[in-house]
Design a protein that fits this description.
binds methionine sulfoxide; globular; six-stranded antiparallel beta sheet
Length: 138
């Protein structure tokens, strides 16, 4: 895509800003649909590197959101059957889909080392972040 390097840089800055300013945001990343494939690809993140840079639709919390188009708040990752662990330190996760022209093209994914930290305010805030990011990636 045109100017893709600077888009990735801007997304990385957003990830770092979020991770540094919210104490219970320990890993922040943006996954996007990988071309025509039924899978997500990790584009930008802040926090520990993960092995899970490609996630098939339906797999894990992220893959489920790619299919459901709904926010997914996980207060306790141990209680989830369909979950992909990135770090043993992670206790909770939130994934909010990112829409461009009504189409779910990706998501913001946040892991927390704090149990059950995410509220409706996080959901509303991350929906707002994604609306801004949609303008960057569109
Ligand atoms: N836990 C996610 C995988 C991505 S890592 O959190 C970075 C999942 O279950 O989809």
């Amino acid at each position: 895509a045109r100017n893709s390097a600077s888009v990735e840089e801007r997304l990385t800055e957003i990830c770092e800003l979020l991770r540094e300013n919210v104490d219970y945001y320990d890993w922040v990343g943006f996954y996007f649909k990988n071309g025509d494939k039924e899978e997500l690809k990790l584009h930008s993140f802040a926090g520990e590197p993960t092995d899970h840079t490609i996630i098939p639709f339906g797999k894990g919390i992220c893959g489920q959101v790619a299919v459901s188009n709904q926010n997914f708040v996980v207060p306790d990752v141990k209680a989830q059957d369909n979950y992909i662990a990135c770090s043993i330190n992670v206790k909770a996760e939130i994934v909010v889909p990112l829409f461009v022209d009504g189409e779910n093209i990706g998501q913001i994914d946040i892991d927390s080392n704090t149990p059950d930290p995410f509220t409706q305010e996080d959901e509303a805030f991350l929906e707002w972040v994604n609306e801004k990011v949609a303008r960057i990636v569109a």
